[in-house]
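Do me a favour: review this protein, sequence plus C-alpha cells, and tell me how the chain folds. Record follows.
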Amino acid sequence: MIRCEWGLKGIEALRPRGSVLVIVDVLSFSTAVDIAVGRRASIYPFPLGDHEAAKAAAEKVGAMVAAPKRAAGGQFSLSPASLRDLNPGDRLLLPSPNGSRLSLACGDTPVLAGCLRNAKAVAAKARALAGQGDIGLIPAGERWPDDSLRPAIEDLIGAGAIIEALEGEMTAEARLARDAWRSARGDLDALIGDCLSGRELIERGFEIDVKLALEREASAVAPVLREGAYVAA
C-alpha cells in the first residue's frame, strides 16, 4: 500500500507500518540532497538550531558543517546551488528545519529523500526496498512562526510525482497527492514560482534554487539514509 501523510506526525503514524519512508522537501532539503549525492558526496542531516552541537557531530564523522542559513558566495548551505561544487567523497553535515529533522525521526525504517528531480529513481528504489510492504510518502511542509506545520503545495506535488511512478494500491491521501501532481505538471513552473515557498526564495535572491528544484527527472540518483548519511543507493 502507498500512503501519504504530512510532516512529523505523518512519520509517527506511518513508521510502525511502513517498510520505506520517503521524505519530500522540494524547496529545498530533498533537492539539495539529490544534487550533493549526485556528485557522490555524503549528506548528514542535522536539526537546525544548535551550531555548537552541529560542529561536534560533524567532527565525529569527519564532515564539514554547512552554513546554518541559506547562503551564497561559495559557502555550502541549504541552497542546492551551493552544493554543485561538492567533490566526490566530501562529507557535509546539513542542518535544516524540516527535511533533516524528519529524516532523523524515522527510526530504523529505511529512508529516501525524494523530489521532482529524482521522482522515478526514488520510486524504483522505494519499491525495491519495500518489496510487498507499505511505502510512506512524507511531504515535509514548512513551519509557521509558532512552529506549527504549514502545508506546502510543492511538497504535495513532489510526493504525487513519486506516487505516480510507484503505480500501486494507494490510500485516499496518496491518490489526492498523485492527482495534485497530474493537475499541476502542465503549469508547474508558474505554480511553484508563485507558491509561498517559491516567492520567499525568489524575493531573497535564490531564484536559481527554485529553477534547480523544477528540473524534473534531471537525476537518476535515489539518496538513501545509511549510517546517518544520505548516499547514493
